[in-house]
Write a structure and sequence with these properties.
The protein is mainly alpha-helical. The chain has one domain (17-311, 332-408). The chain has 19 helices and 2 strands. The protein has helices at residues 6-14, 24-46, 49-53, 61-72, 76-79, 90-108, 113-130, 138-153, 170-193, 197-200, 208-211, 217-223, 227-242, 252-272, 278-286, 292-296, 301-312, 325-360, 368-373; strands spanning 398-399, 407-408. The chain has a two-stranded antiparallel sheet with strand order 1-2. A hairpin with a 7-residue loop joins strand 1 (398-399) and strand 2 (407-408). The termini are far apart. The mean pLDDT is 88.
């Protein structure tokens, strides 16, 4: 007889021991990709962070944190959660980046995933919280939200492998898919309620490719395609974000179809412009729509055999096992973990749901649970391209040897001459 008690329902939803056993391959792919995304973020920062928020940077973190401490006192540590409270030196800044890079590599190598995710999250949050104007990008919140939830999604252990004994909890899997859905759907809502007539007139993409950040040479050619192409893709964007995204919550065949449509769409964006890791993160979140049955067929033969054997292997039972103090504490520790997981994941779901509802209608929902999480950027509102950029200014550097004839210094990959593709 199936147990239908509330405690059993909570375990089924939030406990990894009773998690979704058919999501091991999507989890493995997602966590390796998340490690690579974290690495790309820290690798980029290690060369820039001193110039951005260092002691002699553009927006020094030291001055910012001093102002926060003067205004809020010790509560400023909550409003600006960062390791830079301990030190704002250049060594500390680069140390945070290197710690994040090392942890992200170890995450890719599947070494203690939960611990490495925690280190990556703390290091990246430390930068984002102190970066001021340099952390106003939605992609930073996307990575922090996905990275935090992934700590509950990852398997336990030092070298877990596929870890069939610690499958992903259903609640953590749902919240990651929920984040993927919100990125699409809330962006579609923002385009409608944002008031930009270009989306309603299907002209939003007419100038998009040349006004995007660091457009590629492919984007340069796409900019010169006829208006009907841009109108069709503008309509397709709205249809995908407001309609097709709901397929993520339908049965398996619909989720697979949704993945097969979203993935080429993201590749098209990646090939035409550079949004750093934003589209790569959305891309890998889409892999969570798949299951082991679908992905197993795509594995190399050796990996497929290894995966099947790991699923069929059974632990050898011990005769008259001797209980020690760890066995005595394990039930209590499991109960504490379940309670913390339940509270945190439910809290994030409420905060993100409230943010989404408020985009459409200012309903009188409690705001305190939402505002408490705001400093940590783990429950965000998204709205990409609500207002389209109608033009962009580019700085052109020129030099002259005689003060009469001036020559342009071209920068590789930087858009300059509108008549030539970048790169």
């Amino acid at each position: 007889m199936k147990d239908s008690s509330p405690a059993s329902a909570l375990c089924w939803l939030f406990a990894s021991e009773r998690g979704a056993a058919d999501r091991l391959l999507p989890r493995w792919i997602f966590l390796r990709a998340l490690g690579l995304i974290y690495y790309s973020a820290f690798f980029s920062l290690v060369f820039q962070i001193k110039g951005l928020i260092g002691p002699h940077g553009i927006l020094p973190a030291n001055e910012y944190l001093q102002a926060v401490a003067e205004q809020f006192g010790r509560t400023g540590h909550w409003y600006v959660p960062t390791l830079l409270w301990f030190s704002r030196s250049s060594h500390m800044l680069t140390g945070i980046c290197w710690a994040g890079m090392i942890a992200s590599v170890l995450l890719v190598l599947n070494f203690w995933p939960r611990g490495m995710l925690a280190i990556c999250f703390v290091c990246f949050l430390s930068f984002v919280s102190a970066a001021q104007d340099f952390s106003a990008y939605q992609s930073d919140g996307m990575l922090l939200e996905a990275g935090f939830i992934a700590m509950f999604f990852a398997p336990r252990g030092w070298r877990p492998g596929w870890e069939k004994t610690s499958p992903p909890s259903r609640a953590s899997w749902f919240l990651l898919v929920w984040e993927c859905f919100r990125i699409y759907f809330e962006s579609g809502v923002a385009k409608i309620v944002g008031g930009d007539p270009e989306w309603r007139n299907f002209t939003a993409l007419d100038e998009y490719y040349q006004n995007g950040p660091l457009p590629t040479w492919i984007g340069w050619y796409m900019q010169h395609w006829p208006h009907w192409f841009h109108a069709v893709t503008a309509f397709g964007t709205l249809a995908l974000e407001l309609g097709l995204a709901w397929m993520m919550f339908l049965p398996r065949s619909f989720r697979i179809l949704c993945f097969c449509i979203l993935t080429p769409w993201q590749f098209g964006i990646i090939l035409s412009a550079n949004y750093t890791f934003l589209n790569y993160l959305v891309l890998v979140l889409g892999f969570l729509l798949l299951d082991d049955k679908f992905l197993r067929r795509l594995l190399p033969q050796r990996w497929r055999r290894e995966f099947v054997e790991s699923q069929e292997a059974k632990p050898i039972a011990e005769a008259n096992p001797q209980k020690d103090w760890r066995d005595m504490l394990r039930p209590r520790w499991t109960a504490v973990k379940l309670a913390v997981t339940t509270v945190m994941l439910t809290w994030i779901f409420y905060a993100t749901l409230a943010e989404m509802v408020w985009m459409v209608k200012p309903v009188g929902l409690p705001t305190v649970p939402v505002s408490v999480l705001e400093p940590f950027r783990i429950a965000n509102r998204y709205g990409l391209f609500a207002m389209m950029t109608r033009g962009r200014y580019e700085i052109e550097f020129q030099g002259s040897e005689d003060g009469q004839t001036w020559l342009v210094y071209p920068f590789r990959f930087k858009p300059q001459d509108p008549a030539k593709p970048p790169g």
